Amino acid sequence: MTQELPSKKSAETLPVRIITPHSGLDAFRDAWRSLVADFSKSRELGWRLFIRDTQASHRQSILGYLWLLLPSLATAAVWIFLNDQQLVRIDTGNTPYPLIVLSGTVLWTAFNTSVIGMQSILAEARSVLSKISFPHEALILSAVAKSLLNSVVAALVLIPAIPFYGHPLAPEMLLFPFAFLTLVVLGCACGLALVPVSALYSDVGRGVQLGLRFGFFVTPVIFLLPSDGPSRTLFLCNPATAPLVTGRHWLLNSETGSPALTLVIFMVSLLVMLISTVIFKVTIPHVIERMNV
User: Fold this and answer.
1) How many C-beta atoms surround the C-beta of residue 21 within 10 A?
2) Spatial contact of 263 and 243, defined as CB atoms under 8 Å apart
């Protein structure tokens, strides 16, 4: 706990700072107050960091921002090819399989990119963390903005794909962005919750990468959600399943969605992200010291 007293020197007005021990709850209370008080500064700095990092990552690239679109297209193209060649057989009813795999890949990319982007915030700012004093929540805002950019650009492929495959337009398609946003928030919440631990132990970051690869196959990304059986139960235990299936339902009417569960996941993810941000602010000085940056 810090207390400032006026100096006794008449010629100087510098305060005298007295540092005394405080309880753990005081640290969280101070972090919350700082989060609220510095929000405007953090928002401006986060935006500038987002612009700088985005421009720097594509400055020496021939294809530029197309790299944000190519990974999703490549993944979808592989599974479309395998299905066309009957190497894998996936029944999608009356909905063209390319639309199923494209929409599923776009929604999974929103979640996957958000987790990875949030996990890398300390590594990207490692050189300045111990040298410059700034609101560290700006790193979180920058990561969220980059996740949204990467995900939205990947989703642009759906605009020409839907009319190309002759799928009719419907008013429910306007709800698709909510499921999309839910997966972005869910991914950011999951990634941010693990940042203090993964910054200290590289095993956690590697485990996250491995878990995301495994998660691709326990989420109905390239196929429809089974109507029954143990596989359906397994998929529904994955929090990314409900918003992904619901988003695809709104977009293609290909399967039964869960709008209520998607809304619950969105609200819980926002709460987890808020709590994780406060924990991040409390733990970041100790993490910086342990990282020896």
Assistant:
1) 6
2) no
